[in-house]
Amino acid sequence: MSSISKNLADLRKNYTAGQLSENDAPQDPIALFETWFLQASQAECPEPNAMVLATADTVGTPSARVVLLKGISQGGFCFFTNYESQKGLELASRPQAALLFHWHELERQVRINGIVSKLSAAESDAYFFQRPPASRIGAWASPQSREIESRAFLEQEERRFQDQFGDNPPRPMQWGGYRLQPERIEFWQGRPSRLHDRILYTKAQEAWRISRLAP
Ligand SMILES: Cc1cc2nc3c(=O)[nH]c(=O)nc-3n(C[C@H](O)[C@H](O)[C@H](O)COP(=O)(O)O)c2cc1C
Q: Which residue's CA lies nearest to atom 30 of ligand 1?
């Protein structure tokens, strides 16, 4: 066994930070998510709104990357990106996706599955125009996920769009938001001896069914 494999095999942590019981589980999982998110912020988890977004292509090949949660509205989780990126193209052909939060300091993870749809142009504008002008130019300058010849290409595009738009760049048509409407949300709290708590919410018609999964 290589030394790193030996090291990895020896790395283990006993989880003792908290617990999650059915009694702490409100009817609405978004309420529990908001409580956990607030606690992650208070515990100074770095970038508590960073989440892994998993998508798949038409033949089912999965891919995952980090994006930032930028809002919860109409019962769904919102993020912003380039609609022509790899994730954008995958979501256009297959809207099923998963989100994952890991709040290490609290020994918690939240797994979310659902269906993604685009936010309205007005909702995308509302967030886009809150961003600093330099980030708005960045949205123009980067053909996200495409192969580019060099770093210099990006810097040249940045200057080109700065010259074109000055201090008030509009929103590119290919940039905007998505909302993932959850159908399944699992809250995981680490517990001692690997006997973790897993509380699962599954959407059944308009209500949520609450169950416990074995760790
Ligand atoms: C902490 C962090 C936050 C990120 N936030 C976003 C985001 O909100 N939107 C986005 O498009 N990419 C974000 N990225 C970059 C993505 O992980 C990814 O590189 C990019 O979106 C291209 O992904 P794709 O080629 O799979 O479409 C973030 C990366 C990190 C590490």
A: 66
